[in-house]
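ok here's RNA-binding protein:
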Amino acid sequence: MKIFITGLPLEVGEDELTAVFGDFGQVKSLRIIKDRETNQSRGFGFVEMPNDEEAKEAIKRMNGGDYNGNRIKVAEAQDKPNTGGGNTGGGGFKRNNTRERSY
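and the structure:
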């Protein structure tokens, strides 16, 4: 199960967070999302745990808790909706150059 965590203190590293979730069971992978330019944590990340029951227990016990002075939110990650990519005609500004002009 993939878990989404938000509200992480900026100084928390992946090793520390892996150890915290490791208290609930095996951690398959963990990633704290970082800013591309500064390489600083953006305050959220993802944990993947192979055992769903252990993951659910981690969510239940950690969601809304205090972590180094920050209230964190922990929930099952939702799959990103497939928007189909490319131009589907939605949104944006379109100029209509076929208007008739009257002078």
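+1. Strands lie at 2-6, 29-34, 41-48, 66-67, 70-71, 73-76.
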